[in-house]
Amino acid sequence: MILTAILISDCSPKEDINKGKELKLWYNQPAQSWNDALPLANGRLAAMVKGDVSREIITLNEETLWSGYPEDCNNAEAKVYLPKVREAIFNGEYEKADELCLHMQGCKCSPYAPMANLVFDYQTGDSLIDYYRELDITRAVAHIRYETEKGEFTREVFISHPDQVILIKLTSKNPGQLTFKVGLSSLLKHHLQIDPDLTMILKGKCPKIANVLRFPEDPVHYDDMDGEGMNFDARLKVDARDGEVSVQDSFLYISNSTEVDLYFSAGTSFNGFDKSPGLEGKNPETISIPYLNSAVQKGYEKIKKDHINDYASFFNRVSFDLNAPSPADIPTDELLKRYKTASPILHLEELLFQYGRYLFISCSREGGVPIHLQGKWSNSVLPPWNDNYTTNINLQMSYWPGNPANLAELNQPLFHQIKNMSINGKKTASINYGCRGWCAHHNSDIWAQTYPAGEYGKFGTKSVKWMHFPLAGAWLCQHLFDHYLFTGDEAFLLNEAYPLMKGAAIFLLDWLIESPEGLLVTCPSVSPELSFVTHDGQAASADFASTVDIAITRELFNNCIKSAEILGIDLSFKDTLETMVHQLPAYKTGDRGQLQEWYHDWKEAEVTHRHLSHLYGLHPGNQISPLTTPELAKACKKSLEIRGDKAVGWSLAWKVCMWARLLDGNRAHKLIENVFTYVEPDETKEGYRKPGTYPNLLGSCPPLILDSNFGYVAGVTEMLLQSHLGEVHLLPALPDIWTEGQVSGLCARGAYVVDIAWGNGELTEAVIHSEKTGTCTIRYKDAVKKINLQEGVPYMVSFEDF
């Protein structure tokens, strides 16, 4: 097999590389529940649109609206109990160690909060003749169209990032047929007023505490409006082309109109992760009023044009086409139900990939806060898992698509959160453990909390496997170095990434202790969320040197070493790390042929558990590969087989990534087929509580969390392009069912953008776009070649069989 590289003259970006693809979710009925409403967001503001005909409730969110405040829950007692825990572990008293760990916890993190409900009561006729609802992900616009005996009505909804408002347009095909009431309400403490100019104003407050563990009988506690807790200001302005607008009770009443535009703006008192939102907060009116006034003056059509251009500047960077037909006459929910009835519907696989990119653009914008479990959407004061940041996989998985799916600058909210967590994490490291540097554990929130958030042991010993994971900060640092590898941005490495990585590494220098065998180990150490059973029958969670701990430590040390070499700084620190990395335990293979999860070959308390933390070195790490460590890769494969192919949504997506790293595209696709399991969205119906995908293509854990959507995007990119071993590996895990297709705009480490086309399961050509001058190593199957690239000069690559 020969590789050839040809300089080509033109590589100008296409204005709309997805033109002609039917990238829409559409339905012939309103959503059954909030879980299958159409999600819209601009990073800061978010809405779930169900599309009901007679009474519509659109849930509205703002990304900085959280309960709580910057509570200091670091626990000085942890420092007292740490040597006791370690002694129990090294004595083999694992259950005792778990009990002692309960004394090392802090309070529970705060939940994300729902802002408002926009309520419409329509008078458009009772007999529904026709109905259509869609989300166009090429433009980030939702449409509803329906017909009654009064004629045809349409609604259009989008959320503008440039203008920071939610826009809704209601129209009637027949003049004067729009008559409806609209109002604002909230699940939070609030009051409503309507100004003389008919601006509707909703002022509200988040709970000071929303914690079912601390207060099981009455978990939600408010201060006065001028006391602790986040304040918010939400405003609605109605622009009716004709008809009349009046006030009826607490609603605006629009009658006999033909076209109505509604503008929604909001702001909160959030003033930073370390400031009290109630006592030191911003005035939310300084955010909501200027945005609203500016939008009304600018007008609907200009805002819409700017919104589409802004959104498309991100979305149109990548195309993915399996040359599969788009069944234009079958609604999305029916396609999902039919996916497994015959051969998989490849159009859905294309659509879910681009939908994940749509969600990423919608949820993560520069200057904002990171994606959390439900993206930026919530309809509960006490949402599942607090709808916050779970930092033992879920937050990390949400940002796996950022670099490879060509959305690198949208990683910025994550990096800002890591920086905030490093500040709090320095206190946690010192107060809880007497260590330098910084660390973080299993949970965080907008207040960047870093302590073990177990509510002081109220979860019981089962919480140890979740809460006592001080390697979460070190894991997050992988995203920093990976961003450098993808972009080649040395200024970012010097000024942002390396200082955070170094701080996390310094914590580990102090955290590591010598084991009885003379190795450097972490202790206590868990494999997140999974317990083990010892040979003498103890069921516990805390051991020393769990495989994931050592894999993360090794990776962070090596990344710091590489960074110091690249930057030419901290050479003595580099030497220290080089010495210590060789004292870490090696990977081990257990008696089942699997990669051991713990230092000892313990059995899992739950064999088919959702977490795969011990395989970190395979993915997202780069320490294990069939190409470099075939025996360890074989052990990883055995571990995946033991875990099985059934899992919650995000775990399925992680398994796709891992099978792709094992270069097994068919097995990866088998997991993709499990992702497309239809889940009933109505929680009152049978089939609601199972993993898979809701009709709106959002992932079900259950219930709804979005990291499975982002993990799916990452899995598809791993099947088409890999670069973690220092090579641009083309089509490394192409499944047989993807016989032909093309993808353009994917990114590879080394600051490359790659376009790939294939037919009959074989590469036909690839184009490498270089953002820097240098040597690039290309791999396809067993063929490898180095080519010289120049900045801005594309190369066409092809392989031919002898």
Could you explain how this protein is built, in words?
The strands form 9 sheets. This protein has a 9-stranded antiparallel sheet. The model is unreliable at 2-14 (pLDDT under 50). With 802 residues, it is an alpha+beta fold. Strand 30 (721-722) and strand 31 (728-730) form a beta hairpin. It has 17 helices and 37 strands. The chain is globular, with a radius of gyration of 27 Å.
- Per CATH, the class of the domain at 77-106 and 364-644 reads Mainly Alpha
Proportion of helical residues = 25-40%
CATH architecture title of the domain at 77-106 and 364-644: Alpha/alpha barrel
Strand order of the largest sheet: 2-7-8-9-10-19-16-13-12
Shape verdict: globular
Strand content: 15-25%
* Tally of helical segments: 17
**CATH fold description of the domain at 77-106 and 364-644:** Glycosyltransferase
Radius of gyration equals: 27 Å
User: Termini distance?
Assistant: 6 Å
| Total number of strands | 37
Major sheet description:
9 strands, antiparallel
Mean pLDDT: 94
Describe this structure in a few short sentences:
The chain is an alpha+beta fold. It contains 17 helices and 37 strands.
How would you describe this structure in keywords?
802 residues; alpha+beta; Beta-galactosidase, Chain A, domain 5; Glycosyltransferase; nine-stranded antiparallel β-sheet; seven-stranded antiparallel β-sheet; 17 helices; 37 strands; disordered N terminus
